[in-house]
TrEMBL record:
SUPFAM superfamilies: P-loop containing nucleoside triphosphate hydrolases (SSF52540)
The keyword Plastid is annotated on this UniProt entry: no
InterPro entries xref list: AAA+_ATPase (IPR003593), ABC_transporter-like_ATP-bd (IPR003439), ABC_transporter-like_CS (IPR017871), P-loop_NTPase (IPR027417)
PROSITE patterns on file: ABC_TRANSPORTER_1, ABC_TRANSPORTER_2
Residues covered by region (Disordered): 318-367
Stated name of the protein: ABC-type multidrug transport system, ATPase component
Compositional bias ranges of the Low complexity kind: 322-334, 347-358
Organism whose genome encodes this protein: Amycolatopsis methanolica 239
GO molecular function, one term: ATP binding
Key word Transferase present: no
Transmembrane segments: none
Source superkingdom: Bacteria
Domain ABC transporter: 22-247
Length: 367
């Protein structure tokens, strides 16, 4: 995406570091007795799409609203480019955001809506046509927003967020209301945006909805971090199993143990599950031992199951929620199959290594 020249106030010099980084550190928010967010820490770097995941009421929107200066934190900090949102100078050029329930004037056309916002942030008029094209709304530009479907409203909200050609995108549940084609479109759009060296933070209550879009993931539940790290690491923490249906399960288990497979267990449907084996290894073994088998099936690691486990109230992590120095991404170990993931990396160190620099300026320098 080409850099756009702006004439708006504060467009040229800014006090942020231009890094495109989002930092959330020890962030908390209480609404009266409700601890919506508790001691949350994570970092989002440019060039990646980060999923911000948690079930309904987990505190995602509250966190994003704090990041965008719409809610005052009870404790902790949330910064973009090393600065709280309010100190960004011309924030539309640094961060574009779509939050829940974006309101549009129902009688205004999509194009006019965007023109009003473009004028407010000092973006040139031709940017309106560009963003309409980017979100696939060009042909609906003269229709009134009041008649838009939920998916079209999502696209218009995204177009509004893109007006400032921002370095950072923050989207709260952007896939809501999109049809399958729209979800694929959004995925490609966000990945391309990140590939340009920009930063994308996208929330969802469904891991499956964003699984193919995101590189790293912050999973929260009840306002507390459950996992923070690369999605691949979460995936690889789930060991796959080979499920074997044998004529004589006992003979198979004995042969497996003799061959050195230690994690062997029965499944409820009468099969034998072997952790850490390949189908080929099992096939060779049963051929050699002369054991009759009726099926050898590899069971893929189930990320969604792990997500439910990490966010369920029964999860032991909840016991130490709110502890002052909780190592995020390090839920207590549960042994065996389907246990929690290995730790993600702690962002605190990176924060200390890279304090915000003054007067670097240059919004959109990554574009
Ligand atoms: N303005 C508010 N006043 C009181 N409580 C609030 C307020 N905003 C949020 N909460 C509470 O904070 C908690 C977190 O809410 P939040 O909207 O951040 O969750 P969420 O993860 O975005 O959920 P969802 O997936 O449903 O959008 C909830 O218990 C919610 O009721
Ligand atoms: Mg929400």
């Amino acid at each position: 995406m080409p850099a756009i020249k702006f004439t708006g106030p504060g467009g040229a010099r800014m006090q942020h570091d231009g890094s495109g980084r989002i930092f959330v550190q020890n962030l908390s928010k209480h609404f009266g007795p409700v601890a919506a967010v508790q001691n949350l820490s994570f970092e989002v770097r440019p060039g990646s799409v980060t999923g911000f995941l948690g079930p309904n009421g987990a505190g995602k929107t509250t966190t994003l609203r704090m990041l965008l200066g719409l809610v005052t934190p009870s404790a902790g900090v949330a910064t973009i480019n090393g600065r709280p949102y309010q100190q960004l100078g011309n924030p539309a050029q640094v961060v574009g955001a779509v939050l829940e329930n974006e309101g549009f004037h129902p009688k205004r056309t999509a194009r006019n809506h965007l023109k009003v916002y473009a004028a407010a942030i000092g973006a040139p008029d031709n940017r309106v046509e560009e963003v309409l094209g980017l979100v696939g709304l060009s042909s609906a530009a003269d229709r009134r927003a009041g008649g838009f479907s939920l998916g079209m409203r999502q696209r218009l909200a995204l177009a509004t967020a893109l007006l400032g050609n921002p370095q950072v995108l923050v989207l709260d549940e952007p896939a809501n209301g999109l049809d399958p084609e729209g979800i694929v479109w959004l995925r490609n759009f966000l990945r391309a945006y990140a590939r340009e060296g920009r930063t994308v933070l996208v929330s969802s209550h469904l891991l499956s909805e964003v699984e193919q879009t995101i590189d790293q993931v912050v999973i929260i539940s009840h306002g507390v971090t459950r996992y923070y790290g690369p999605l691949d690491q979460l995936r690889s923490s789930q060991q796959s199993r080979v499920l074997v249906q044998a004529a004589d399960a006992n003979a198979l288990v004995k042969a497996l143990q003799e061959a050195g497979f230690t994690q062997v267990e029965p499944t409820p449907d009468g099969r034998v599950a072997v952790v850490g084996a390949t189908r080929q290894q099992i096939g060779d073994l049963v051929a050699k031992s002369g054991i009759a088998v009726y099926g050898i099936e590899e069971e893929r690691a189930d990320l969604e199951k792990l997500f439910f486990q990490l966010t369920s109230p029964q999860y032991p992590g909840a016991q130490y929620s709110g502890a002052p120095r909780q190592p995020y991404g390090q839920p207590p170990q549960q042994g065996g199959w389907g246990g929690p993931p290995p730790p993600g990396y702690p962002p605190q160190q990176q924060y200390q290594q890279a304090p915000p620099q003054q007067g670097h300026g240059g919004w959109g320098g990554q574009g």
